Amino acid sequence: QLVAVPDNSNTQLLWYNSALTPKPPTTWAQMIADAEHLAKEGKPHYIEIQGAQYEGATVWFNTMVASAGGTILNPDATKVTLGAPAVKALSIMKELASSPAADPSLSVQMENDNRLAFEAGNAAFELNYPFVYPSIQADKPALAKKMGYTNYPSVTPGQPAKVTIGGSNLGVSSYSKYPQYDFAAIKCLTNAANQKVDAIKGGLPPTLASLYSDPALTKPYPFKTLIKQQLADAGIRPQTPAYADVTIAIQKALSPPASIDPTSVLDTLKSQLKAALSSGALI
Question: Which contacts qualify for 65-69: CB closer than 8 Å, 24 or more apart?
Fold first, then answer.
């Protein structure tokens, strides 16, 4: 049996330039509209998000589908369940990619590219993990004062987004010569004190619920309540032994985002995901 100890969790927030948008949007429609308005005014306006053909694209799609009330696979991963929520998700992704709100580099951008674009002052919004917060504090302290944060925007007004959960786990190899020391190291690395360090210096969300009410994190990790809320109702990536094929199918179908045709992409994904589940490998 494979077991592991959670080292950190992760979820994406909406980071925004409060000097450009004092009141952050709560939905994707509002965010795109705000960005387009800023573009007309000749101000920084890009919405930074991960659009390259890699795992980040799967995370984006999974978040959008879950936020629209849908799923990619059923709970036991025997059936493809893409439907109207997936069409809604694909339509929004296409809308962003085809609008002035999209960074010209969207189709090749990953998390760090988004971070750098925001720090360069080119963006009004950024959908990204909390590692961007300590980074901007160190790299661009003046801009950091203008960096606001709020929940990931909703797909449907009034319904909170279900953001795809991330994180890492630590395990001990069955071939280890010193498993007792390995377990001791893991116990140390995942204790409350070290999770605090990871949060403050690396932005990594803790896995220990008690830390979200720890006063010592209030100032250096001011968005901890938002993260706790999102983790409590997170989106989960498809749980299947065929995940490698599933995610590759999604990544290929979404690349580049500006070329997405919701109906044809949905048909393609249904076909390829069915093949993946029936061991018709895509790799």
Answer: 65/89, 65/235, 66/161, 66/162, 66/164, 66/235, 66/236, 67/152, 67/154, 67/155, 67/156, 67/159, 67/160, 67/161, 67/162, 67/163, 67/235, 68/155, 68/156, 69/156, 69/159
**What's the pTM?**
0.95
How far, CA to CA in Å, does 122 sit from each of 27, 47, 48, 244? 21, 9, 9, 34
Angstrom CA distances, 206 to 2, 166, 185, 202, 247, stand at: 22, 12, 17, 11, 26
132, 17 Cβ separation under 8 angstroms: no
Q: What is the pLDDT of residues 191-221, one digit of tens each?
A: 999 999 999 999 999 999 999 999 999 999 9
pLDDT band at 2 (very low <50, low <70, confident <90, very high): confident
**3-state secondary structure (DSSP) of residue 249:** helix
- Distance in angstroms (rounded) separating the CA atoms of residues 255 and 3: 34
Strand-pair category, 123-128 with 46-48: parallel
Distances (CA, A) of 60 to 22, 48, 121, 162: 25, 12, 23, 11
- At residue 161, φ and ψ (nearest 5 deg) are -70, 150
Identify the sign of the CA torsion 121, 125, 126, 131: positive
Return the amino acid letter for 95.
E
In SS3 terms, 185-213 reads as: HHHHHCCHHHHHHHHHHHCCCCCCHHHHH
Mean pLDDT of the chain: 96
Q: Which residues are bridge partners to 13 per DSSP?
A: 128
